[in-house]
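User: Show me a protein chain along with its predicted structure.
Assistant: Here is one chain, sequence first, then structure tokens.
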Amino acid sequence: MTVVALDTYAVVKELMAAGFTDMQAEVVTRILRRSQNVDLSELATKTDLQVGLAALRGERQAGLAAAKIDLAETKAGLEKSLAETKADTLKWMLGAIGMQTVVIMGAVLALAKLTSH
């Protein structure tokens, strides 16, 4: 961290010459002095931000790829389930039609026997 010397006496004198009271000039000078002691080592550099952004982009791309795979698997599962449901529905319909045919044929034969006597 680069340290720049601050001539507090000169700052106070300059502020007082500009119309500040003695107390105001001292407070402003104290604030300036404290601002010099700020640790800037934790601030992100442009490179830090670029690396972080690249990492986020990579994570986003990986997330999108995983989401596409999940979507494809879900679609395949739904298509399989739909095909099974269609087959079951067709089986039940054919069974019901067959049963109705047997009942109707039985009724027709029964009526035929009744009317033939």
